[in-house]
Write a structure and sequence with these properties.
single chain, alpha/beta, TIM Barrel, 13 helices
């Protein structure tokens, strides 16, 4: 496993050092990060279309990062991926994720989003990234609780439509040798293992359809985030290291009561302040041979982001395991002796 790295989306701002690629990568390296995951919606960090078109431009960005002591771990199209599939109920809310010229025009907005994902496939290859981070979007999220009863066939058709929309994008990532990793997240049609499996069926078990593993979203859903690794480790190709807690009470539970984040029973926390067993997570990922990046995503309802970032790098570094290259009891091993083995088993004739 590689790391520590940091997702820059929550730190971009108008004030230095958060307002340019050069400054923010220096800041990240100063806190001990070795990699940065770059969102592709802010031109202060990257011009996605130019990155897809020009290797010289990509090399320039890689040069800035290298000079400052970090490398690009993955690119992210979370906001664009959301716009690949938007139920009309959310059109106004999600219009802000697209450039102003596409707002009020869902078809044009979706076409732009699909093009963005295809550009990201090429750009990721130019950067030498093995994985790319995104969201699936949602056609059915507003029906996650079955009341009123959903019409028969609605969910099946919803996943079929997701498959039709995402298969050409997945094919573009396949052509560029990059894994497309969906962050399984409340608000997305892909938010747990069952929905991911249904999506895999809809895209013909596409080999490039993979998972960005973020245990914080599973704590808030009350899903077993360790068993999830046992089941889906072959599809986990990216990793957000983010903490969370779930403390239900006599007044509120999983649904959160429309409360602000600080007042919800389930809320995201800075690393080490929540309930997640990261020792077990890093152990399981190491056991199954995960060789991608461990990337901090800071989202905390209480702690200042700069404190969270400063504490995050050493936290991740402490948890990264250098995988053993020999068994602990090899000192007591003996050479293969078939006669001895037969004697011990009582099978020697």
């Amino acid at each position: 496993m590689k790391g520590p790295a940091i997702f820059l989306a929550q730190f971009i701002g108008d004030e230095a050092p958060f307002n340019s690629l050069d400054a923010i990568t220096k800041w990240a390296a100063a806190h001990g990060y070795k990699g940065v995951q770059i969102p592709t919606t802010d031109p202060r960090l990257i011009d996605l279309a130019r990155a897809a078109e020009s290797q010289d431009y990509v090399d320039e960005i890689k040069g800035i990062c290298a000079a400052n002591g970090v490398e690009v771990t993955e690119l992210s199209t979370h906001l664009q991926g959301q716009l690949v599939a938007v139920n009309p109920a959310y059109d106004l809310l999600f219009d802000g994720f697209a450039p102003s010229r596409y707002r009020g025009n869902p078809a044009a907005r979706r076409e732009w989003a699909v093009d963005q994902l295809k550009l990201a496939a090429v750009a990721s290859r130019r950067f030498g990234c093995a994985s790319h981070a995104t969201f699936s979007g949602a056609l059915m999220w507003h029906m996650v609780y079955p009341w009123p009863q959903r019409p028969a066939g609605l969910v099946a058709e919803g996943f079929a439509e997701l498959g039709r929309r995402w298969t050409p994008i997945l094919d573009a990532f396949a052509e560029n040798g990059v894994d497309l990793c969906y962050e399984l997240h409340a608000g997305e049609d892909l938010h747990d293992g069952v929905t991911f499996e249904r999506f895999l069926d809809a895209v013909g078990q596409h080999p490039r359809a993979n998972i960005l593993y973020d245990p914080s979203h599973f704590v808030l859903q009350q899903l077993d985030y360790l068993a999830f690794i046992d089941i889906y480790h072959e599809r986990i190709k990216a990793f957000h290291v983010k903490d969370a807690e779930f403390r239900p009470n006599g007044r509120a539970g999983v649904y959160g009561s429309y409360a602000d984040w600080a007042d919800r029973p389930g809320r995201f926390r800075s690393l080490g302040d929540g309930q997640i067993d990261f020792g077990a997570i890093f152990s399981k990922l190491t056991q199954y041979g995960y060789d991608g990046w461990a990337v901090l995503e800071w989202e905390c309802a209480l702690k200042h982001p700069e404190q969270g970032a400063a504490e995050g790098a050493p936290f991740i570094a402490r948890h990264i395991i250098r995988k053993a290259d020999k068994a602990f009891d090899d000192f007591a091993a003996t050479d293969v002796d078939e006669a001895l083995i037969g004697h011990i088993l009582g099978t020697t004739r």
